[in-house]
Queue: 4 jobs
Job 1
Amino acid sequence: DADVTQTPRNRITKTGKRIMLECSQTKGHDRMYWYRQDPGLGLRLIYYSFDVKDINKGEISDGYSVSRQAQAKFSLSLESAIPNQTALYFCATSDPGTGLFFGPGTRLTVL
Amino acid sequence: ILNVEQSPQSLHVQEGDSTNFTCSFPSSNFYALHWYRWETAKSPEALFVMTLNGDEKKKGRISATLNTKEGYSYLYIKGSQPEDSATYLCAFYGGSQGNLIFGKGTKLSVKP
């Protein structure tokens, strides 16, 4: 079984819709992250959480919100999706001193 | 805004060639430098986490060096194989900003 899972894996939605992307992990890591990848721009951090009570904005948090429901769960919401939020979204986890462990990604298309 | 630069942007080599690419990062407030390998249609996977100036890490035919004083790291692949084809990402962690800043990657293509 995968250590970091993301649902859904693919999603097509319309402008203005609310979307939630979910991430679960079995690695026991306290730290969780949401990144988006756009062609030519590399991975950019949206939000990160170092424990259940700690939520921090990343480089590009506008238009997004997150919820850390438990150590193992970190969800990303787009309150009102817009076309420029079309991207590949990755959830990741880590422990201090380790590299990031990435989930399989969610491909989101906003029409 | 902290900047992490990788060069070259892309690289095409023949099977058996050895190759290297560069990651440049801020030389102040250094905490760690990560290297990741990202194959097409997969997720990035961590190769190395480097924390000390002069660090050298090795995994099979892939190795990396780190110079924190001048702000660069090299990734070397010896005797490239087609299965080495991937995008190689570096990421800088300066403890003060609390998260990793990724470069845009070097895309390596190895022709049989």
Note: The interface with chain B takes residues 33, 35, 40-45, 48, 50, 56, 58, 90, 97-105 of chain A (CB under 8 Å).
Job 2
Amino acid sequence: EAGVVQSPRYKIIEKKQPVAFWCNPISGHNTLYWYLQNLGQGPELLIRYENEEAVDDSQLPKDRFSAERLKGVDSTLKIQPAELGDSAVYLCASSLGAGSQETQYFGPGTRLLVL
Amino acid sequence: GEDVEQSLFLSVREGDSSVINCTYTDSSSTYLYWYKQEPGAGLQLLTYIFSNMDMKQDQRLTVLLNKKDKHLSLRIADTQTGDSAIYFCAETGGGNKLTFGTGTQLKVEL
């Protein structure tokens, strides 16, 4: 069974440019998460989807970040415009459901470098 | 808010046991997890423990939970060079929001 798929794996852009990351969760997983991982730190939740609905986006900087999961399957996270401080790893995870007992499975992440 | 703390580094010799410690503040945590992250990779779930358990063993891994002290540990028996990675402790409070620690870098020396 395929795990969580993310693309691209690496992205280098200049500041003020837009960038988008894509995630395909494990088949059948209704809940999808986007995390931000800064160097030397643990991941921090940006947004959580249950099917196509964003149920927790309190940590998403909405002035420049947006996300969508239109059909409740794959998802896109966008930054526009990117800033130097956005350089980080963006991790996508999925789980079968949203309960606290549901294990989250992570993708390999997209490493973003903003120059 | 919730806070999860871990020591930054641990160095052990191959064949020895490793013990990685974690403390957390959220008394409503229901599940506590250990994830492993190798360089350039995502997080791999190693094991988890439910908050009403004291111990869980899974092959070379032993998880101990002291709920009173809000202390979690991961013991890796017979540590191998392939165990070198960053280990993250994480807890879930309400819902399924994971709060991660800063990670402990384990270095296994020959």
Note: The CA atoms of residues 56 and 63 of chain B lie 5 Å apart.
Job 3
Amino acid sequence: EAGVTQFPSHSVIEKGQTVTLRCDPISGHDNLYWYRRVMGKEIKFLLHFVKESKQDESGMPNNRFLAERTGGTYSTLKVQPAELEDSGVYFCASSASLNTEAFFGQGTRLTVV
Amino acid sequence: GQQLNQSPQSMFIQEGEDVSMNCTSSSIFNTWLWYKQDPGEGPVLLIALYKAGELTSNGRLTAQFGITRKDSFLNISASIPSDVGIYFCAGQREDTGRRALTFGSGTRLQVQP
């Protein structure tokens, strides 16, 4: 069974550009989470989907970040326009239910120059 | 927001030594989790703790959920080179209905063969 997969694994963009990150959760997992780790700091929660609905988006930094999960399958996280402080590793995780283990993808390393 | 203070930030030890790391919080958590991240990979769950005072082992790893529910520690006995990586603690609160994890900033472990 495939795990959580994220695309791309690395992205280098210039300040002001747009980047879209994609996450494919484990098949059948209704819960999908986005997290971010800025260099050397803690992994911070961004938002949580249950199927296609945003259950909790309290961790989204600002309105330059837009997450979608149309159809309740894969999810995208778009940053527009990107700023230098958006650099970091973006992790996606999925779980079958609210109380079961969340499995993480390998992350997308975003560098904004 | 909630913060987890994880220490130490990094450790460099000799193969065969025991390792201990811990996390403390000003908030109460109902679940404590310990993850390991290998280079280029996402965090992988090592141990989950669900009750205050619980002591759980997974091979050479032992973790405890503090009585106050505000702290947890992870011990690794007889370290080996493949223990190298970043270890994260994470807490989960369920009373608020949020399922987001709050992570510590990580402990980077290096093992000298």
Note: The interface with chain A takes residues 3-4, 6, 35, 40-45, 48, 88, 90, 98-106 of chain B (CB under 8 Å).
Job 4
Amino acid sequence: QVQLVQSEAEVKKPGASVKVSCKASGYRFTSYGITWVRQEPGQGLEWMGWISTYNGNTKYAPKLQGRVAMTADTSTSTAYMELRSLRSDDTGVYFCAREDDVTTEIDFWGQGTLVTVSS
Amino acid sequence: NFILTQPPSVSESPGKTVTIACTGSSGSIASNFVHWYQQRPGSAPTIVIYGDNRRPSGVPDRFSGSIDSSANSASLTISGLKTEDEGDYYCQSYGDRNVVFGGGTRLTVL
């Protein structure tokens, strides 16, 4: 069965970086893109960006451009999201999810990784 | 910027039917697929409708989706409400070639 397993919770200081991993299994990794979505405490879903696991192409949300980087390691079927220059309002749960490149739905989600930014 | 607007909350009694609207700010909502997700507290979202009106396997046929092009909106309808349907519901589509989520609607079944 399709699974996306994310790395454990992180606590970071303002100005630091965080890198969240997302290991996929149960399907051909390069057949679907990986989308990253975050959710601040008590708030809605915010799209962060997307990476093509086929060729490494990326799209990032304009508000995160310059601070976020998404990569994918096809040898281990693992996607990564790195967010730099962390601020307190980056605190939240970060989800990776599988996106169908043709029909665009996000059909399987990771369990989420809590990132806390605090001095 | 393309925005999808949802009502913040809806409530209805068990056994009844509820409809959640998702209105696009510009353009034609019918130009791209609309998908719907359910999120229960403390859990990741799960897809309940994809491609405007298709149900993934395992989602009860009490869930249905539709598009109203004249109103530039999509709707999620849940019939025969059960207490287990409580949670937050998000619509999702594309705008400016990027994924856009609606703000979410909290469904209370009481």
Note: The first strand of chain B starts at residue 4 and ends at 5.
